[in-house]
Amino acid sequence: DEMMEIDRLRKMQHYEKREMERQYKQVEGANIIKKQINENEQRRILEDEKREQEKLAMLRYLEKLQKQWYQRRVRGKRLSESRGKRTRRLHIKRLRQRHI
């Protein structure tokens, strides 16, 4: 009887040890998964921030291009107006010279 009891106690201890190891591995696995989730979230946050910075840089660049285009357009209109005025003055001058 004693031998059977000793054997039963050994088996229980062995079972408890395996159960504790299983639980430890389960907790360890859960911790690894939590760590991976946190790392992935941090990576996503950094990528989102990078995309936002790139978007802002692109918008600033587009605004700069738009201003340059507008300035060239205004400058072109001024040149055109000035040429038109000069052409009209020359035309009037020629007309006057013909009538003299």
Mind sketching the topology for me?
Blueprint: H1 2-99
Concise overview:
By secondary structure, the chain is mainly alpha-helical. The chain has one helix spanning 2-99. It is rod-shaped and about 145 Å long.
Task: Throw out a few tags for this protein.
about 100 residues; mainly alpha; rod-shaped
- The stretches of 5 or more residues where confidence is low (pLDDT under 50) are none
What gross morphology would you assign?
Answer: rod-shaped
What portion of the residues fall into strands of 2 or more residues?
under 5%
Could you spell the SSE succession in H and E letters?
H
Largest beta sheet, briefly? none
What percent of residues adopt helix (DSSP H or I)? over 70%
Roughly how many Å is the radius of gyration? 43 Å
Number of helices: 1
Count of individual beta strands = 0
The end-to-end span amounts to 147 Å
Mean pLDDT: 92
- Structural class by SSE content: mainly alpha
